[in-house]
Amino acid sequence: MKRNVIGMMIILALSKVMGLLRTMVISGTFGAGEVSDIYFASTMIPGIFLGIVLAGLNTCLVPVLSMAERAGEKEEFFNRFTSLMILVSGLVVFLIVGLSQPLAGLVTKFEGEKLASVAYYTKFTSIIAGLQILTYTFMGYLQHNNRFFLHAA
């Protein structure tokens, strides 16, 4: 157990260092200019939707799965829940893509071509939001089954 905790601490520390290096590379390559502003704004918009949808998903899923397991309906419940999350995931992506221009205007103070670029790239980053919803759904299921893995989401 002690080795596992130390291993997790090392992996999490490496993750933070890699995030710092990523930010340094982006800053060094693009500077603090227009391109990096567009990048950060276009990745922030799906992050807002993720915060709304994922706020309690993983926390609530494990206890609900435990209740369904006691009732003998765990697999059936999770299949229905996964179907619902696929729909929610698609809806979130559809909303972000469809509303990318107004969302970019709400989140940023950019105008003209810069605002259009943020809206354009937000459409691509919206796919991340949909996939992360599904990732957290499956992570909750795995955690309920005592399978604790680090995921890249």
Structural overview:
- The chain has 153 residues and is mostly helical.
- Helices cover 85% and strands 0% of the residues.
- It is built from six helices and no strands.
- Helix 5 (100-107) packs across helix 6.
- It is flat, with a radius of gyration of 19 Å.
- The chain starts with a helix and ends in a 9-residue tail after the last helix.
Sequence-ordered SSE layout with sheet pairings:
Blueprint lengths: L1 H29 L3 H21 L2 H14 L3 H25 L1 H8 L4 H33 L9
Question: Over all CA atoms, what is the radius of gyration?
Answer: 19 Å
- Summarize the helix and strand pattern as letters: HHHHHH
Low-pLDDT residue spans:
none
Q: How much of the sequence is in beta strands?
A: under 5%
Find the structural class using helix and strand composition.
mainly alpha
Largest sheet: none
Tell the overall outline.
Answer: flat
Kindly, what is the distance between the CA atoms of the first and last residues, rounded to a whole number of angstroms? 25 Å
Integer average pLDDT: 80
The beta-strand count equals: 0
Helix content: over 70%
Please work out how many helical segments DSSP would assign.
6
